[in-house]
Amino acid sequence: MPRTYVLPLQVVQEFVLGVYDEEATAAFNQNLSDVSTLKDPHSKDASQRYHAHQYTNGTMCDLTNQPRETEVRFVCSEPRAMISSITELSTCKYALTIQSPMLCKHPLFQEERPVWHTINCKGLPENSKETKAEKYKAEGKQIIMVTDVE
């Protein structure tokens, strides 16, 4: 019978990047015109949008003497959920990006489709009234067009 040996794990160093802060998240999102989409809230490209949560009061940073902070960004991405990146924005301030297919179902994260309008044009009959431009021309008045181009 084979034997299994379990070696005890030794934690050398541990950092907490922050704890979810509901108030900081609400304050962060309150300043946006579109609460659920960030980065470029007006972007027509849904892949450029994310929803952010703020994490504060992490392990004290040796370099800044401030607690570590993390912004967790949730993005729409198929086919599976995963952490796609962890970056240090500035000393002891991090951004963690999580891809989630569940977010893609939300209307704010779906691609905007252009709105098409049909315009039906008809020609004017031969006996129609003359246009204002034709009337001005017949009266000898000058039509001036003002543009911002010289």
Automatic annotation (TrEMBL):
Keyword hit for Disulfide bond: yes
Chief localization: endoplasmic reticulum
A Pfam family reported for this protein in Swiss-Prot or TrEMBL: PRKCSH_1
Cellular compartments annotated: Endoplasmic reticulum
Alphabetical list of InterPro entries matching this protein: Man6P_isomerase_rcpt-bd_dom_sf, MRH_dom, OS-9-like, PRKCSH
Keyword vocabulary terms for this entry: Disulfide bond, Endoplasmic reticulum, Signal
Alphabetical list of SUPFAM superfamilies matching this protein: Mannose 6-phosphate receptor domain
Domain MRH: 1-106
Protein name: MRH domain-containing protein
Organism: Hevea brasiliensis (Para rubber tree)
